[in-house]
Target: DUF465 domain-containing protein
Amino acid sequence: MTILNLDSAQTRLSELKEEHRALDEAIDRLSEGPFVDQIRLTRLKKRKLTLKDSIARLESQLIPDLNA
Model:
């Protein structure tokens, strides 16, 4: 991975983590209300899981190959 790609990947990773945190807060707020919109809550949770997978994939790519 080139330095430019590395910087880009790290920036993207930070953005994904921030969005993941924001979704976590939104899910908490939505869950605390007296009337819970289950459809919206489910969509937010699915998006959060998608972000988690993307974060894990990017973090895996950023780990240097020790066999090289």
